[in-house]
Write a structure and sequence with these properties.
Layout lengths: L2 H29 L10 E3 L11 E2 L5 E2 L8 E7 L4 H21 L4 E7 L5 H11 L6 E3 L4 H6 L6 E5 L5 E6 L7 H12 L1
Parallel strand pairs: 4-5, 5-6
Antiparallel strand pairs: 1-8, 2-3, 4-7, 7-8
Amino acid sequence: MSWISSVAVKKTVFAGLVAAFLAAIAGSAEAEPPLVGDMVKFVPSAEDRTAPDTPFISATGEPIKLDSYRGKTVLLNFWATWCAPCVKELPSLDRLNAELGAELGSDRFEVLLVSIDRGGPRVFEPFLEKLGIKSLASAADTKTALLRAFKAPGLPTTFLIGPDGAIRGRLVGDAEWDSAAAKDLINYYVSN
């Protein structure tokens, strides 16, 4: 084999290795959710865990369980009027619900606010109105039974629940939920 042929073979082998490496990177990017921006705080679930079936009070005042949301991806956000980080992220959750709800359809995606304010709707409804929240209403968990069933470590805590009722992950603390990073993360789970 001549020196020129040897170099050509080495270039071909190198090009093949680079292509394989790039394919592996691209494949792994699709296999894991995109975690950038505020979404670096999102922790994907390590095991299949179904969302608790603990009853809470819906935004219309009726007892409800999370299994009534089966078939859609739900972003469940625990919050309270006295929680500053909760209040900070509420407008972005409202915009996310309006934007992604319209884009994906309310039958495929929904933001579900659950307030743990002890005073229930008489406390948080005027608060949401004053804050200018338009596309969201809040459910109530005045005795924190649902919050405890989820083992949420504090407020705000947001859980992403798949259409099958399995918890896909959680984010503790506030986030810009209407950011491109958040939308990419949610779209990843809606698509997979």
